[in-house]
Design a protein that fits this description.
It is a single chain. The protein is built from 15 helices and 23 strands. With about 550 residues, it is α/β, with parallel strands linked by helices. The strands form five sheets. Strands 1-16-15-9-4-8 form a six-stranded mixed β-sheet. A five-stranded mixed β-sheet has the order 10-14-11-13-12, with helices on both faces. The chain has a five-stranded mixed barrel with strand order 18-19-20-21-23. The longest helix has 17 residues.
Length: about 550
């Protein structure tokens, strides 16, 4: 037999191997603050200085990180919000949303109410140097720290565990965390901590394109079409990340997430024959201009669909062209950390966001129509019917809060031949799920959730007399527009990403109505005052987002 040998000729000459990192990042210029010096020491091992990191140091760093990122933002993000207020080309609605975000940041910085009610999945990435020693349970220690932050603070438990294919149960501690640890570097343990909300995570898209797209005009046209699929449900203005290429689909999407957190900003700005990833600054500017021209704006029309854009070009298999899109939303929650021989450090976030507020609050957002929610539903509908889409509203009175699981419970009633409860017919329905209520407060952080997840329920519920006025964030499917026209209903858009501000100033009372076993997904009754909203879909079939090609 002439079967090939498993060991090729080792004498055959090959050139010396030159390793090029796929992500050759420049120096770290992050401003850090020292958390503690405890739990860190240096010991000689086989004649080499080794950094020994205790389990408690890892736990403490993780707890501090997830506490910080639910209350504080990076200075650069806050400055971008202020820039909207100072931009003469920004729409009134752009400015209204930006000002609300700055107010929200100022409230969240008090350390009690988190900036968003969806306090996210805990995501941890570590890069452990070869001269760093630990007890080997790093993932457990880091996860414990994240859990402790969620248990000790007014944060929401959003993780559900599958008991079977169709039955789930909330884990009641926001675990499990997503923890990934890599071997990289020498005497430093580096980290990125991220709290990723469901709204922005759901706006992560992988497209398997073909190499024929790789000309400038074709690629830009392709990306414009895909960027529109992002919609507004994840609380823009966005930090938009686009990755072209990748050695695998999963690495393409991992790179999207890191780029959206500006973790890859120090990449080189040009490629090489060695195959390193790089930032394309020219395309970043072109796509930024394109997003400004779409008219979507900061949720309700205007210029600021995106704060900024990152475009990463990566090597690829010759037969493949993965293209990834993703965003970091208005709850721009990530922070870097590191452990060195000198101690445990965390990135310095902005503790005084009030400095970004204007000295005198401008009159933003145009005329406001007051809506009394304690009037009969037919009167509320008649008042709304007199206003055009895009009208800014101020809502005062009673609302019912229900989202995915509660909607499924109510649908089961209809399918059994039972009617919807009166509370679902007599009041507007707010799609939301609150964070924990701090002691002495009427409500925890309580912003709107993504409306699109409830689209399939609308026609059935409105036909049964419920969901006649719905309140949430983001664009909706055509079926909702058609149902509102048929049944005389309305969809109102609220500002996504300002949950602390709503809790502090607008929500006066919260009580469970039904299904308390669902936790944050129970049905609630809330009393609100001057709750901001816009008419997005009316009873005539008009849809604000359809005009922007998002409907």
């Amino acid at each position: 037999m002439n079967a090939p040998t498993a060991f090729p000729d080792q004498q055959k000459p090959v050139p010396p191997y030159k390793h090029t990192p796929l992500f050759p990042l420049g120096p770290d210029t992050t401003p850090y603050k020292k958390i503690t010096a405890e739990g860190v020491r240096v010991e000689k091992v086989l004649g080499k200085d080794m950094l020994v990191v205790s389990r408690e140091a890892l736990r403490a760093l993780s707890e501090a990180a997830f506490g910080e990122i639910n209350h504080y933002l990076r200075p650069g993000h806050l400055q971008q919000l202020r820039n909207i207020l100072d931009d003469k080309e920004a729409s009134a609605n752009d400015k209204f949303v930006a000002l609300d975000f700055l107010k929200n940041a100022n409230i969240a910085a008090g350390g009690i109410l988190p900036m968003c009610q969806d306090t996210g999945t805990a995501i941890i990435m570590g890069k452990k140097g070869c001269n760093v020693l630990s007890d080997g349970e790093d993932e457990a220690a880091l996860s414990e720290g994240a859990r402790d932050a969620y248990l000790r603070r007014n944060l929401r438990y959003s993780q559900v565990a599958p008991l079977s294919m169709y039955e789930e149960k909330n884990t009641a501690n926001n675990m499990p965390a997503q923890c990934e640890i890599y071997a990289e570097g020498d005497d430093t343990y580096k980290f990125m901590f991220m709290a990723k909300g469901g709204g922005s995570a759901n706006k992560s898209f992988l497209f398997q394109a073909t190499p024929s797209v790789l000309t400038k005009d074709r690629l830009l046209a392709y990306l414009k079409e895909k960027v529109l699929t992002l919609g507004t449900a994840a609380c823009p203005p966005y930090h938009l990340a686009i990755v072209i290429g990748g050695t695998s689909a999963e690495l393409c999407m991992k790179t999207v997430k890191l780029a959206s957190a500006r973790y890859l900003d120090a990449l080189p700005t040009h490629g090489s024959a060695d195959g390193n990833a790089f930032r394309d600054l020219e395309m970043e500017q072109e796509i930024q201009k394109m997003t400004q021209s779409l008219g979507v704006g900061a949720q309700f029309g205007g210029k600021y669909f995106c704060h900024d854009v990152r475009v990463i070009r990566m090597p690829r298999h010759g037969a493949s062209l993965p293209i990834g899109l993703g965003v970091s939303c208005s709850a721009d929650r990530q922070v870097l950390g590191k452990i060195t021989k000198d101690g445990v450090y965390l990135e310095e976030l902005e503790r005084n966001p009030a400095q970004y507020l204007p000295a005198v609050e401008q009159a933003l957002g145009g005329d406001v129509v007051q809506i009394d929610l304690n009037r009969p539903m037919k009167d509320i509908l008649a008042t709304l019917s007199q206003q055009p889409i895009k009208t800014r509203l101020s809502l005062t009175g009673t609302m019912i809060v229900a989202r995915d699981s509660a909607h499924a419970k109510l649908r089961e009633r209809l399918e059994k031949g039972e009617p919807l409860p009166d509370y679902f017919k007599n009041h507007p329905i707010y799609y939301a799920g609150p964070a924990k209520t701090p002691e002495g407060y009427a409500s925890g952080a309580f912003g709107p959730t993504t409306a699109g997840r409830m689209d399939s329920f609308v026609d059935q519920f409105q036909a049964a007399g419920g969901s006649m006025v719905m309140l949430a964030k983001g664009n909706r499917a055509p079926v909702v527009r058609e149902s509102c026209k048929k049944h005389g209903g309305f969809y109102l858009g609220s500002i996504g990403g300002a949950a602390a501000n709503l809790a502090e100033h607008c929500i006066k009372k919260v009580e469970v109505v039904e299904y308390p076993e669902l936790g944050m997904e129970a049905i609630w009754r809330i009393e609100v005052e001057d709750f901001p909203a816009f008419i997005i879909i009316d009873d005539k079939g008009n849809d604000f987002f359809k005009e922007l090609n998002l409907g």
